[in-house]
Structure formats: C-alpha cells, structure tokens
UniProtKB/TrEMBL annotation:
It comes from Pseudomonas khorasanensis. It is an enzyme of class 1 (oxidoreductase). This is Gamma-butyrobetaine dioxygenase. Residues 136-372 form the TauD/TfdA-like domain. One of its GO terms (biological process) is carnitine biosynthetic process.
Length: 387
C-alpha cells in the first residue's frame, strides 16, 4: 500500500507500518508503531516539517515557513492519530499539522530508523582486474527508460561501463549523453576530439602513452562522468586501461594507513595552461564524504605542479604519492581493453582512473570524441527515473 502524497514532495512513501499510539513528553512526542518501534519527534522538528499549504508553497513544494519564527519552547496543545493513521497536531497559535505516516516512518530519526537509512545508501561495488565490464546497447538505451536506468545505476555503483552500437558519425556521442542530462562544457569544447595534433594543448592530444589519471583535476569540481566514443581506431596501440580508484584507496587504507591519511590531508596542486587559460586547483588526492567514505580521487601526474608542503611533510607526501601510483600499476587492479569503432566508455571520472597506451599514428587513423556530465546530473536523473 502506498499512502497518498499528502506531503510536500514529488514522491510517495509506502506505509511500511502504521502508528499505534502517541505519547507527549516535555520537548518531543514518542510515536509508537505497530511493530513496536518508538520514534521520538521533537516539537520543533514537527513544526518545522509541517507539510500544509501555508508552510509549503504547493507549486514549488519548497518551504515558505521559517522555524525561527516560533518560540523555542513550542509545544502542541493536542496530538492524536486519525483513522488514516496520520499524526494530527494542534499548535498554540491555532495552526494544525497533519503528517502522513509513510513520510514520518521514512524520516524518523530514532537509532534504528537512521541505521536502516544508512544501510540503504547505495554502495560502490569495488572492482579489480577480474571485472566483467557492464555492456549496454545504444538503441536500447535510446528507447527504453528502464534500460537507461540500469545503465545509470551501473555507472553510479561500478563507475565503468561500455555502450556498443553507437553511430560513428562525429557528434553522435551528444545524443546518448543527453539521454542523461546536459553536457558540461570546458575549454576543450562541448565535445572534445582525441586525436594526435602537432599543436597539442595537452598530452591527451599526442600519441604518447598517458598514465592513469582523472580528467580536469585542475578544476575545483572535476567532471563526474566522462564519455569516450571511438569513431576510428586503425592505429596500432592506444588500448584503454582502467583502475577503480576507490578500490585502490580502499586497499591503501588497509595496507598502508599512513599513506592513505597523507593523501587525504596534504593538498597537491594540478595545473593546465595554454595561451588563453590557466586553471589551477589545490586539493588532496583522496577526498572523503561526510560519512568518511572515499568520494573522489584526483590524479594526473602530467598536470601536477611542484609539491608545496612543509619540510616535515614532504617525505610523507612523496612516500604516499609514490605508493598510490605504484599500486595503480599493479596488475591486480588493472582492466585493459581496446575500443572498436561504435563503442564508447562511460565512467565515473572522479573515481575510475583511465590511461591510454601509446599508439603509432603512422599505422592508421585514430579518432575518439569525448564529453563530460556532472555527477549531480546522473544522480538526479536516477532519482527521477525511479519515481
Ligand atoms: Zn503548516
């Protein structure tokens, strides 16, 4: 059963369990559920989350009420549960709140409910050299939203996917990228062309081998998703290599915790410059999220500035940096694959490091196109597709 969307949200919340009673305390109520769970809700929290159309503008579904406009010892004059299982609250100023039980259960902050929510947060599936790369078909993704969702979940959780059957006309990458969202432009264009050029403004545009890296570590926000679409691949060499940066960070955390700590703490500058631009970003190589999980890897040896840290920290930084790169070269972590025309990579650029073997332009043409989309767009698209 799904309760009515009597809440200021674009989702509905399943009625997992009905409230069975409510008990009033000095600064909160205890809501009792039919399964025995007891969820405390503070009076201020309840008033703050009133979903009525005076507190939340029904068009935008954003709050217009501000909790600071109530006394801090606010207390209901009455509370009870109605026949639909909704929690009704009367406030001293005559305001009434009505809370949907599905919504309350989904937002309860007793220890058990919070632990359940934490366990429900999507987990990254860490991978090593034995990864079976998830493969998707272009025409299916273009026409079927449930297949699209499966692809996006793989990008989110595994961070490396391949799409086959993509038209090889220049620019066709745009169509599939835009199935997710708008493309993030950079100084290299909306789409960038990976070809060797005499006047290259990055080592990417040469035939050199490119060591494992993330793209644009020179920006405060590295692009979340990277696409690389193969149009022509007649040259010898140029295989793509990937490692899961989260898996390496995870291994480093257990095998060499001091090195892990150093890479989380000591910032490193990355730079990219040409005649018209000069991008710089100073940040640690490993970033953690609010829960202490590895959330981002920032790495491109060819874009790195001179280390600038204290005399005491310098040996610590070199030891950790060398250790991380040495690990990324270990075969246990590496996946290598040669991309054929009509195939593309879509990977999490803030997680999955990519490399390219050197190729020989004398043996044939090689032309890839690429683009970026931010991680926020991916996550938003997933949530909307899941509604
Ligand atoms: Zn209200």
């Amino acid at each position: 059963m799904t309760t009515a969307a009597a809440v200021a949200d674009f989702r509905t919340y399943p009625l997992i369990c009905a409230p069975s009673g409510v008990q009033s305390l000095a600064d909160r109520i205890n809501l009792e559920w039919a399964d025995g769970r007891i969820s405390p809700f503070h009076h201020l929290w309840l008033r703050d989350n009133c979903p009525c159309d005076r507190c939340v503008y029904s068009v935008t579904r954003e709050q217009v009420f501000e909790i600071v406009d109530t006394p801090d010892d606010l207390k209901p004059t009455a509370t009870h549960i109605d026949n639909d299982g909704c929690l009704l609250i009367d406030w001293p100023d005559g305001h009434h709140s009505r809370f949907d039980p599905g919504w309350l259960r989904a937002h309860a902050y007793d220890d058990v409910s919070r632990a359940e929510r934490l366990a429900g947060i999507p987990q990254s599936h860490l991978w090593r050299s034995d990864l079976q790369i998830p493969v998707f078909e272009y025409t299916v993704l273009m026409n079927d939203n449930s297949a699209l969702l499966q692809w996006l979940l793989a990008v989110r959780d595994i961070g490396l996917t391949q799409v086959r059957g993509v038209p090889t006309d220049p620019g066709s990458l745009k169509l599939i990228a835009q199935r997710i969202s708008f493309i993030r432009e950079s100084n290299f264009g909306v789409l960038f062309n990976v070809q060797s050029k005499a006047d290259a403004d990055s080592n990417a545009y040469t035939a050199f081998n490119l060591p494992l890296h993330t793209d644009l570590p020179t920006r405060e926000l590295q692009p979340g998703l990277q696409f690389l679409h193969c149009l022509v691949n007649d040259a010898e060499g140029g295989e793509s290599i990937f490692v899961d940066g989260f898996a390496i960070a995870d291994a480093l955390r257990s095998e060499d915790p001091k090195a892990f700590q150093a890479l989380c703490e000591i910032p490193v500058e990355f730079r990219n410059k040409d005649r018209h631009s000069d991008y710089r970003c100073l940040a640690p190589i490993i970033a953690l999220d609010a829960l202490g999980r590895v959330a981002e890897i920032r790495m491109a040896n060819f874009l790195r500035g001179a280390f600038d840290t204290s005399v005491e920290q310098m040996p610590r930084l070199y030891r950790a940096y060398r250790r991380f790169i040495a690990m990324s070269r270990e075969s246990r972590f590496r996946v290598m694959h040669r991309l054929n025309p009509g195939e593309l990579w879509c990977f999490d650029n803030r997680r999955t490091l990519h490399a390219r073997n050197a190729f020989d332009p004398a043996t044939g043409a090689r032309h890839f196109q690429g683009c970026y989309i931010d991680r926020d767009e991916l996550l938003s698209r997933i949530l909307v597709l899941q509604r």
